[in-house]
Amino acid sequence: MQYIKENLKKINDNIVKACKRAGRDVDSVTMVAVTKTANTEQIIQAIKCGCSELGENRIQHFKQVYDEISDYLEEKKHDAALPDQVNWHMIGHLQRNKVKQILPMVRLVHSVDTLRLAEEICGYCEKNQSDVDVLLQVNCSEEVQKFGVPVGAAVHLAEQICSMEKMNLRGIMTMAPLTEDEKIIRQSFSRAREIFDDIKAERFVGDDFQHISMGMSNDYEIAVEEGATILRIGSAIFNESNE
Ligand SMILES: *Cc1c(COP(=O)(O)O)cnc(C)c1O
Q1: Is the pTM of this model over 0.90?
Q2: What is the CA(238)–ligand 1 centre distance, in A?
Q3: Given this model, what pLDDT does residue 91 score?
């Protein structure tokens, strides 16, 4: 599984270069390794190569790899080459009836896009006396997307989330439209940046509002140039044939 190491090196080089082009500090960008198509062995390999932020979107797969990786890290806890723990991100659509299964596993929920989902998460946190970090998923492309709050409603929903005591709004998340057209992708990322700035300027958000989660395997360099602080990258890491 040498290819995982090589893929990660290439991605890292590209991120460094994109940061240079954008005049950004490399430390301002975090990569979440998206494991939805990976098996446990591949994920362990990625962890050994330094990936400590992991992202999932399929509930069944999430639970399975979460348990297996947790057991593995516990078993190897004296191995200096491995971190004591990894952080899991819920990056995909979250159904309200899955909140109580998912929340105990995650560090950051990227996909809060309705008031009802926010209320469900908040209710879970109140019951369990916990807090949760979330991102507001915004639909920044003109295309009809299944998920994400429309641009025009984003500030209002952000305010509603911020009014919930247990919810810590850390930023926004967006998905680029499905296209190869770089200009269109860049436009949607740049719109995300504008919405981020609009919300950031509001009095109701705190200093913790810092993140823009955008950019996947095919568009993460554009995302870095447009201000992403969290990249969600899957196939470019775990596909063996990436050249
Ligand atoms: C699958 C997925 C990714 C990663 O996609 P790749 O193209 O494999 O890098 C990122 N974000 C979300 C929400 C996803 O579902």
Answers
A1: yes
A2: 12
A3: 98
